[in-house]
Specification:
By secondary structure, this protein is mainly β. The protein has 11 helices and 58 strands. The longest helix has 15 residues, at about 385-395. The protein binds 1-methylethyl 1-thio-beta-D-galactopyranoside (IPT).
Length: about 950
């Protein structure tokens, strides 16, 4: 099987060319093929014979990954190769899928040259047409074309056989962090190539931002003609510049495309031309003379049911979803996407970093600082394979205006083979920039790229105060480069926290040009038992658990709270209240557009209820401009009032309807002096205290205070009105998030929490006294084997028909670890299904992920308050709550008021059950409603693969106070 272990590229392929869909005849071979899976490479290739009887083979759709159709099991690893590192050899257990298709070709094809094109075969395909071997596809996410002219049988039945191997030498270069899935997963087509057709061509469309004029040059080795009617261009010759006068340039914000054609006698190819010029000027990446700020995401191609096959309508909708969330850039991590995705990026407007299909991460044996010596990147035997992949990507995608940077790949160390790639790309396409994060000294690249730096590090680089390189010349060169974070803000599970802090730096330093959140999509596989499966669920020997579920959208592409936060932080318009509360400040943060495409409205809410509304006139603001506007005439309100300003699209566009909300901001109105963003935890000034009192017992052994009853022996709350209450006591535990479990901040926070026993705290009554209008209870809360404790004083007071509670918490001894959260938890009876609150919402919010939560009045059911993270974990917290009501169907329930604010979460299970669950179906109602009312939470951070929460958002145990009032409804 030598072809499996050749270093590559695969033999037999035609030279690569741009992806085009011309008017030449084309037959899609998508459909039901015959399929047989073998556990190893079959000894013979009998099935290549056209006469072979495949009638007992299964049917399999093509394109597909066979694991997604019940053949073999998917496997997930991050960087670990799922086979021994023994390059270029592959295991004998090499699942091999034979695919067969019979198809007919019309007579009219007789005499026409034709190619067979595979847009993606994972990882290696050996191909026969009518019994003749055509060659081998290698390079899974790159196209391969074969000349079939001599073998095709027009007017007759043809038999195409593709033998796909899961493992090949190519697998060593495809160690991306994703599921290992094999198959013919992109389109297969037979394409006529008329002798007098259009050969490959390269469109260069430059824009001069000083004159506003465009220059078009189409490079082609044949005498084709170029026509662009809107530019008055017809019959234009190739290979020379055409000065087409003033044009509308292309940008992600204004993706203007000119439709044109490149024609020869026998073929016409439609092209969509976008004029834009990419440059680094004074250390700043500019397009058309303007600084670009990447508000980007990393996008893998994955579908929860279809594996690597992403139907085009799904891709279009997901790119539109990005646009609706103010995302303006995509890094095609970590391989070129389906070719049509780039058409969509051109059309919808997204800056693209097109990344080569190369990752050799597993050569970086865990714990080592550098790749092993055998890393393919620096081994000359792999040189052709590296270069071939770069050439095939650049040639395929070179005509897309959206692509402004080529990336040499991901996480492959740095070696001589990268130099081959970079040198070739630079000479072939000097008009685009080169990116590669693995090139820390930027020897080969035009931009400096980092993954998962802290905000502080980004700022140091932006200020040029970071650690210099040893070589001063190289250091000087690097410091003149734009900084791009190819990955940051790891969106695994509940998170990322801290987006705002990065954005502040990007908005402040011109050279810090934003980045790409890791990542767009959770790669969970739909599963009958688990809901969504992740690593380990298919019995993999090595796997990386749920590290593949780290997206801003869930596997079915519904937005997670992280995406809502992204939309707010990336918003191209900011609206805020001036410090004196008398003005509204609007800033245009677009790169290119004015605000003319937006309509501004305002609404005033008093206690969360509508009080007045109107439109806001915003003067013409160019990018970077700011307007300080007087408040509109507002009615006098007495309750807490907030003015919300919304910027909405004035007209439909390709990715949203008129009225779509692009940005919003709020400012507090009125006589209230309270700060706009009050801290969640109110530090207690005084030491815990007992008011001291006479004991008052009732006959029933209860203590009654207003609407409440307490156990007279333990001081435990038993009832509020008619509502039975249990386990009302201090809680500090939260089911660790993926970020809590991450190593970004050293030893994972969660590991320290478990070690300190924060998930198994016990409560001991220290003191209790009852007065005429109050009950005082002091408890000590500590874990088995630990000395350190928290002392909680609960002072319950009768307040008319209500019950007031003041909790003071004070650490005793050093806990040595920040608390997950601190507050009161209560267990209430089932049936309190509806929650209404006045505070931040409607979505969940945490200390460093709360930009998207506005102040208002919201109603949700308990089920709607849960966020379905693929691996269950802390979720659903609402913050800055003034009051919340939990109601049953009959309207009875409980109202909780904060003095001033509290965080809350309501669940049908407790934090321990949430912690123990591995998949969503593990979460089942335990027959009660669990309510947490918190003074504060530790922030989220991004430690699953990045920095932890900012130090001031770690909840260090210190004297803390929480004031609440309870009222039965
Ligand atoms: C980084 C990878 O580039 C990416 O593919 C993904 O694995 C991400 O991490 C984490 O989800 S590499 C990491 C070692 C920083």
């Amino acid at each position: 099987m030598t072809y499996l272990t050749q270093y590559g590229p695969g033999p037999g392929a035609l030279p690569p060319r741009a992806h085009v869909v011309s008017d030449a005849p084309r037959i899609s071979l998508a459909g039901q093929w015959r399929f047989r899976l073998s556990s190893g490479v079959p000894a013979d290739a009998d099935c290549a014979d056209p006469g072979f009887d495949d009638s007992d083979w299964e049917l399999l759709p093509v394109p597909s990954t066979w694991h997604s159709h019940g053949h073999g099991l998917p496997a997930y690893t991050n960087e670990t190769y799922p086979f021994p590192i023994d390059p270029p050899n592959v295991p004998d257990e090499n699942p091999t899928g034979d695919h067969r298709l019979r198809f007919t070709v019309p007579d009219t094809w007789a005499g026409t040259p034709a190619v067979l094109r595979f847009d993606g075969v994972d990882s290696c395909g050996r191909i026969w047409l009518n019994g003749r071997e055509l060659g081998v596809c290698l390079g899974s996410r790159l196209p391969t074309e074969f000349d079939v002219t001599p073998h095709l049988l027009p007017g007759e039945e043809n038999v195409l056989v593709v033998r796909v191997h899961q493992w090949s030498s190519g697998s060593y270069l495809e160690d991306q962090d994703q599921w290992w899935l094999s198959g013919i997963f992109r389109d297969v087509a037979l394409i006529a190539r008329p002798a007098d057709g259009v050969p490959d061509f390269f469109v260069h469309a430059d824009y001069d931002h000083l004159t506003g004029e465009g220059v078009l040059r189409v490079d082609c080795d044949a005498e084709v003609t170029v026509a662009v009617p809107a530019l008055g261009l017809s019959g234009a010759a190739p290979n020379r510049p055409h000065h087409v006068g003033v044009v509308e340039p292309w940008s992600a914000e204004s993706p203007h495309l000119y439709d044109g054609t490149v024609s020869a006698a026998g073929e016409t190819v439609p092209v969509r031309i976008g004029f834009r010029t990419v440059r680094v000027t004074d250390g700043v990446l500019t397009v058309n003379g303007r600084r670009v700020l990447f508000r980007g995401v990393n996008r893998h191609e994955f579908h929860p049911e279809l594996g690597r096959v992403v139907p085009l309508d799904v891709a279009r909708e997901e790119l539109a979803l990005m646009k609706r969330h103010n995302i303006n850039a995509v890094r095609t991590s970590h391989y070129p996407p389906h070719p049509a995705v780039l058409d969509l990026c051109d059309e919808l407007g997204l800056w693209v970093v097109d990344e080569c299909d190369i990752e050799t991460h597993g050569f970086w044996i865990s714990g080592a600082e550098v790749m092993g010596d055998d890393n393919p990147a620096d081994d000359p035997r792999w040189g052709d394979a590296f270069l071939d992949r770069m050439v095939r990507m650049v040639e395929r995608d070179k005509n897309h205006p959206s692509v402004i940077m080529w990336s040499l790949g991901n996480e492959s160390g740095l070696g001589r083979n990268h130099t081959l790639m970079a040198d070739w790309a630079r000479s072939r396409d000097p008009d685009r920039l080169l990116h590669y994060e693995g090139d820390a000294e930027c020897r080969l690249t035009d931009v400096r790229s980092r993954m998962y730096p802290t905000v502080e590090e980004v700022e140091l680089i932006a200020r040029k105060e970071d650690e210099p390189l040893d070589d001063p010349e190289r250091d000087a060169r690097r410091s003149k480069m734009p900084l791009v974070l190819c990955e940051y803000a790891h969106a695994m599970g509940n998170g990322p926290g801290g987006l705002r802090a990065y954005q502040d730096v990007f908005e402040h330093y011109p050279q810090a040009q934003g980045g790409f959140v890791w990542e767009w999509l959770d790669h969970g596989i739909s599963h009958p038992r688990y809901g969504y499966a992740y690593g380990g669920d298919f019995g993999e020997e090595v796997h990386h658990g749920n590290f593949c579920c780290d997206g801003l959208v869930f596997p079915d592409r519904t937005p997670s709270p992280g995406l809502t936060e992204v939309a707010k932080v990336f918003a191209p318009v900011t609206v805020s209240g001036a410090a004196d509360g008398r003005q509204i400040i609007v800033v245009n943060r677009h790169d290119v557009l004015s605000l003319d495409h937006l309509v501004f409205t305002w609404s005033l809410e008093e206690e969360g209820l509508p009080a007045a509304r109107g439109t806001l006139t915003v003067p013409r603001l160019m990018p970077g401009d700011r307007a300080d506007l007087d408040l509109p005439d507002l009615p006098v309100t007495t309750g807490e009032s907030w003015l919300t300003v919304r910027a909405r699209l004035a007209a439909d566009n390709l990715w949203a309807k008129a009225g779509h909300e692009v940005a919003w901001g709020q400012c507090r109105i009125g006589p209230f002096a309270a700060p706009q963003d009050p801290p969640g935890a109110v530090p207690a000034t005084a030491a815990p205290r007992s008011p001291g009192a006479t004991t008052r017992r009732t006959e029933a052994d209860d203590v009654r205070l207003g609407p409440a009853a307490f156990d007279a022996r333990t001081g435990t709350l038993l009832r509020i009105g008619e509502l039975p209450v249990s386990k009302a006591r201090l809680g500090v535990w939260r089911a660790p998030t993926d970020n809590d479990l991450g190593r970004g901040a050293g030893t994972p926070l969660a590991e320290r929490w478990y070690a300190a026993g924060l998930n198994r705290m016990r409560h001991r009554l220290l003191d209790m006294s009852v007065g005429d209008d109050h009950l005082f209870v002091r408890t000590r809360i500590a874990a088995a084997g630990q000395r350190a404790a928290l002392v909680a004083d609960y002072l319950w007071r009768e307040r008319g028909a209500a019950l007031a509670l003041e909790i003071r918490v004070e650490p005793e001894g050093a806990l040595g670890v920040p608390l997950p959260r601190v507050g009161l938890e209560l267990t209430l009876p089932d049936g309190l299904d509806e929650v209404e609150w006045f505070g931040r919402g409607p979505g969940e919010a945490y200390a460093d992920s709360r930009e998207a939560a506005r102040v208002g009045r919201f109603t949700r059911t308990v089920d709607q308050l849960q966020t379905p993270y693929v691996r269950p974990q802390e979720n659903g917290n609402r913050t800055d709550t003034r009051w919340a009501e939990l109601r049953g169907g009959d309207g009875h329930g409980l109202r909780v008021t904060g003095e001033p604010f509290f965080d809350f979460a309501v669940r049908r299970w407790d934090a321990e059950a949430l912690d123990n669950a591995r998949h969503l179906p593990d979460l089942r109602s335990d027959g009660s409603v669990h309510l947490s009312l918190d003074a504060a939470h530790t922030g989220l951070g991004s430690a699953a693969c990045g920095p932890g929460p900012a130090p001031d958002l770690l909840l260090i145990a210190r004297p803390t106070q929480l004031l609440l009032e309870f009222k039965p409804l």
